[in-house]
From TrEMBL:
Name this polypeptide is given: Glutamyl-tRNA(Gln) amidotransferase subunit A
One Pfam family recorded for the sequence: Amidase
Enzyme Commission number(s) of this protein: 6.3.5.7
Keyword Aminoacyl-tRNA synthetase: no
Organism of origin: Patulibacter medicamentivorans
Amino acid sequence: MTDPISLTAVEAAAALRRGELSPRELFDAYRQRAAADDTNSFTWLADDPTTAGAGGFGGEDRGVPGADTVLAGLPVAIKDLFCITGVPTAACSNLLRGYRPPYTATVVARLQEAGATILGKTNQDEFAMGSSNENSAFGPVRNPWDRSRVPGGSSGGSAAAVAAGLAPVALGTDTGGSVRQPAALCGVVGLKPTYGTVSRYGMIAFASSLDQAGPISRTVADTALLFQHMTGPVDPRDATSIGWGGADELGLPTAERLDGLRIGVPVELLGEGVEPGVRAAFDAALRRAEDLGAEVTDVALPHARHALAAYYVLAPAEASSNLSRFDGVRYGNRVDADDLVSLYTRTRHDGFGPEVKRRIMLGTFALSSGYYDAYYGRAQQVRTKIVEDFRAAHEQVDLIATPTSPTVAWKLGERVDDPLAMYQADTSTLPFSLAGVPAISIPCGLSEGLPVGLQLSGPVFSEQRILEAAHALEQAIGFDGTPALGLDAVTDGGAANGGAA
């Protein structure tokens, strides 16, 4: 019998519907593997699919009608930022340690309605603030390709779990690159959808104008499968919910060619800081795109170089506002104190980690009297310019391509004491977040034996086009994820991991 772990999510879901594989067999295979995890990817594992919040065995229990896109008992790992009824949800912060929500996030509920089973909650940077998954109250996550290196962040647990074969698919969140960057560093696929297409209800807020849930998986088709069931009608509990897509409108990608597709490469995001090995793998991927019929050309994003500065004003400002509720009175674990001010101070001092405190202070300063216009107001103006740059670029090209991360995974602890170096890890993803456009990262090769990610982005609501192009490139590159998965064979290996040597 084929090892269930070796199946892609699409293959596993099909085998479940045909009765060739039972939901119990698939769940137990992943549960056993995840329980022996040495990457610290999970903060909680369901003992059984009938555990409170896990949702049962999906289609087997719910009578979900058979269809090519129904998840039918597929185990899904969920980032600890999403609330699930009765399941520990701490956002990997000591301030929320032990919290069990009385409600479930809309996106999780939609996956469960499609038949998915909750496998467990994944580790992350505290309150999604970080690029290395070292800012977690549950300890750092280790990259499956090299346990001495970071997996990226903030959705590092989700990316590492998929890369290590601990879950077939996972749910992450992306504020400034927190799905795409760890996907790149762990050699898996990660999609940040158009802002508003996935409900944020039940997702603990970091920066509300940027936060978006996204799928992480081994293949582009698996990412599309999960994304189909994350979108849907307008959610009245999320004022930013647009209501779009769903399985009726979004299909699994089948493209084999890129004939006529125009791909733009912004020179502003290929300069200083991009490692030579990353650039080599990226250039090799572009040559593959041309071989498939695409036209590759330069495109201008003149304000992209200001994205890092703008983001680290806007996101901390919104974090300062969102996290003010965690005071030990309204939300969060409290400490004993003699008066209210001391209670607030000590609760936050003991509960928040260093990076969260740093961003709250940055954001509070940017919003303070006398500084609002100088910092927050100007950052919003820069954001508007970046949005305009993307609109102008997409009048010339269909998609935009960049390396997802300027570097491969770095050593654990290497950047912990250098916040600026840590923040610069997201220079390639931040402009797309500020613009609110969809973007995907797919593995495109190796550098120093570690994965390199290729980022493809398009205009708002162009997810289907992005997925089709990513699928065609994925097939041509033939990236081999076996070293991280620890399996004898998962794919055919293709062209030597993209021929990036």
